Each structure stands twice: as structure tokens, then as C-alpha cells.
Amino acid sequence: MPRKKNPATSLEKATDLYREFHGGEPEISKLTLESRTIPDKLVVIGRLIAVEYEPQGGSARKGDVYRHEWGDTGKRKVDTLHYFCTDESGREFYLIKGKPQSYPVFNERGVVG
Questions:
Q1: What are the sequence ranges of the domains in the chain?
Q2: How many CB atoms lie within 10 A of CB 93?
């Protein structure tokens, strides 16, 4: 009987995703978050149109700036409704999906959809 592989841990999955996108080994560090809860009330700043990001650390893509327009899958444009929000203090920011959907996702290509 063939042996079954143990399911991957969240750290293993995160490490694999890092390798696929960045093309190298991640520097494992622990990020401490003050809070993981989203407030019940948010201030909607506006609808998200695009996001830009620059890979850091040991990434093979370091120094490149990537711009992703929401809804762009590379093959087709999908209807998305995402919001850029803040809390009542104006000091914390949130990216909120306006409706349940499969996009966007992050993979070896970066942000898709």
C-alpha cells in the first residue's frame, strides 16, 4: 500500500508560495500583529482600482515594481468589487472584498484577478 504524504503545514505552504514567486529561499521571520480583528465599522475610502508593490529581501524580483489592476487575470477581465478602508482612527488600513469571489489570488505570477 502506498504511503500517504502528510498534509503541508501553513508554514510549508507559505514557504512554497514564497519560492514560486520570489525564486529563492525566504528569510523566516515572525511578524507581530497588534490585532487580527477587523473592526465592526469601517470608513470606506474608495473602490480599489490597482495595487503596486516592490518585492523585498532576497527576492529575484527585488527592485522591480509590479502594478496590478483589479480584475486583470491576464486572459480576461473579471468584475471585482474591492474596497480600501480605514478604521475610525484613520491609522489602520484594510483591503476588503465587496462580495465573495475567487479573485484576486496571489501565485507565482503575483496578484492575479
A1: 38-112
A2: 11
Cα four-point dihedral sign 100, 106, 110, 112: negative
CA dihedral over 58, 59, 61, 62, signed as positive or negative: negative
Strand partners for 93? 86
Element (H, E) at 10: helix 10-22
pTM over 0.85: no
Write out the three cell numbers for 98. 465587496
Residue 52 is classified by DSSP as E
Please name every residue paired with 86 in a beta bridge, in sequence order, or none if there are none: 43, 93
The b/e string for 54-66 (b: 16+ C-beta within 10 A; e otherwise) is: ebeeebebeeeee
pLDDT in tens, 28-52: 776 676 767 889 999 999 988 888 9
* DSSP 8-state secondary structure symbol assigned to residue 38: P
